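#struct-help
A.M.: can someone run this one for me? Single chain, 293 residues.
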Amino acid sequence: MAITFLKQADIDKERWDRCVIEAPNGLIYGMSWYLDLVCQNWDALVLNNYEAVMPLPWKQKFGIEYSYHPWFAQQLGIFGMEPGFYKVSDFVKAIPNLFFRYEVSFNSMNTIDLPLATQRPNYVLPLNDDYTTLYNRFNENTQRNIKKANKSGFLMTKNLTSDEYIKLALNEIGFLMNEKQQGILKNLIEFLFQNNYAELIGVENEKSELLGAVCLVQFKNRLIYLFSASTQQGKDTRAMFKIVDEIIKSKCGKPFLLDFEGSMNEGIARFYKGFGSQAEFYYSVNKKRFWFI
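D.P.: on it. Structure tokens below:
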């Protein structure tokens, strides 16, 4: 088994993307074009003839390179053939010493055989069942908030433009990001929407003002709740409960997996769990090397 380190310019992106698409654990975050959008520089580890791949996004500080985990890509790690064929530790050992530090959030199908790995929750909901069955699994608080949202009389809209969605997102949550991160989000949403990877689903009030919206991304059978934002009126009227309920209602009875992109924030996690989603754990590893001392 040969694991090779490749610089970004030397990666065969067609073979890379084929590997991610065909992998049982393939996620949209691992596609070469997605990586190009969310991080300026990324190199990679490749097993044999692109049988498994692991991206290594990197930055440079004071002339020293370090690998980091980029925004808007919840899970990376190793994508490829049946996960049991390789060891995560073998890939980690192959990370070149030119990176004085590496940070990786592996995906949920990577079996971690490393010390000091941090467990993180994701929340997923299979949508195979009919809507009534799924609704009955919502907790009482979620059902109550959906009823409150429905009484508002506000309307769902799927006719949002990427500009309308981005304006809402940056107005309501943009303060949490620096200017560069805002630019990455804008470019990512525009690309996903224009290339039919994303649906932009929102709620409007009687004045046609956008109260809340979600960017829902589809890759294979996974529907990723990539990014959401709401105004104060949207929060007061439980607009996000209405949006998620509508997503479930429109996608149920099909072999989709709704991926909420879990959160370490207790309140956000409680919102996801209220729809009957279950935890799906992945692991993050962050390690410094001291070769430069």
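A.M.: thanks! The mean pLDDT is 93.
D.P.: also worth noting: The radius of gyration is 20 Å.
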